[in-house]
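Predict structure. Chain length: 557.
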Amino acid sequence: MSAIVVLLLGLAGMAAGYFIYSRFIAERIFKLDPDFRTPAHELEDGIDYVPTNKFILWGHHFTSVAGAAPIVGPAVAVIWGWLPAFLWVIFGTIFFAGVHDAGAIWASVRNKGRSIGALTGDVVGNRARNVFMIVIFLVLLMVNAVFAVVISNLLVANPSSVVPVWGAIIVALIIGQLIYRRRINLLTVSIIGVVALYALIGIGPTVPIELPESVAGLPANSQWIILLFLYAGIASLLPVWMLLQPRDYINGLQLFIGLGLVYAAILISNPTIVAPAINTAVPEGTPSMLPLLFVTIACGAISGFHGLVSSGTTSKQINREPDVRFVGYFGAVGEGSLALAAILATTAGFATLGEWRELYSAFGQGGVNAFVEGGAAIVASGTGLSEAIAVTLLTVMAVLFAGTTMDTGIRLQRYIMQEWGTMYNIPALKSVPVATVVAVATCVALAFGAGGADGTGGMLIWPLFGTTNQLLAGLTLLVITVMLVRLARPMWFTLLPLAFLLTMTVFALLVQLRTFYEAGDWFLLVLDIVILVAAVMVLLECVGVLRKHFQEQRAAS
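Prediction complete.
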């Protein structure tokens, strides 16, 4: 199968979703109002609530929600064949992710920028809110702890990426000053930022940086993990305009250029997809595609983490309510395009089917390394770039996505701590510095408390990330659906996706229960049960609220 055909079909589908379907959702369902006063204006504080140009905000939102997950998920899921992964990414982006992300921003904007977890208390009830907040905290804990491991491993494996990855932070700080202090034209600033980042990528292979093999008993990857959490904690305390916005915006431009290079290389070299469309010879021990496909590929199709970013940081920076469509829905399209690139890189970036099967010899293999290896081969053959530069480019893409997600994830954990401080009247947790320290400390405790000196403790609960993340997406869609019912607006465009998603997620949780039981993994078994019970509790609460509103509507009519 020609990779060009798959690429063009995928991009055409997502383009149609944005230009046609998202317009319908924005105008007929959410009814975005240009005259509505957004929280960014009403509660402007120069730190978290900042009216922001929609293009800059799109960059923040896109790079924050993307992370490494839209690379890792599809790169693992192609073991069942490229076609199921392709279809879920395309239709998931159009009918699930775009509506979910834009809906979460809209719901938060209409409620003073409150997070989807806190908002659940008003829309559904306090019991659902309390359970929801626990699920949110678990997802953030998993994301932050595991992405630190992913980034550290990439930095150790590819020392040439260290200079461009950390240099991007300095570039972002300068860009923030140029935009907000010097008021320099956005196009000029964008060109400066992109040129600086690509110059760093060119320098990277000539100045590889490696940390000592051991410091105080900690290996190099653990040293990177500590540095990453220190950076993320400090970054979360800075005003969003100073680092978060410009870093995400410039990274977003650089990453889209990187995607453009991958896509251009495919158009030039026209590689063949060597992986089977439907893999009937999966390795022994590979779980059933149904329902695991729909939780293995989360980011890139639909992800609950997006709802946390949408209602946690993005909603506080919306300048005009119609910007929700561009920032939210088109942000999902951006991530879908990254997932599409991951599918093509991991199925067309290998010379033969035998080479592909050798890499995918067991379930769970592939991942970021397959994306870097396959993508670099495509870029090098299609553009003439050296293999070293291509590997550095793809590695930096993956690290910058994961790094910006960590930036936002720690800030979101701080928000959760502050909301808990308000909910339970704990003055200390309302403090920004204290809430930040607690957020970082919980991540470090998981990383090193459960993982020992190598800091990989987050991997202990990572097997439940997919189901927990998709559960969160389903619950977010439930909150949006209840809001639509209260406003007497059509609800089927959120109700049908959430029904499908919750069905697949609960099914996957039950499948995992059996897997953990047979493996004797009692910790994950208990955690799986807790998450399953939480899902049922919130679902029952939402069903009760919906039933009550339908009864009131019938009585009124």
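Summary: Strands lie at 214-215, 218-219.
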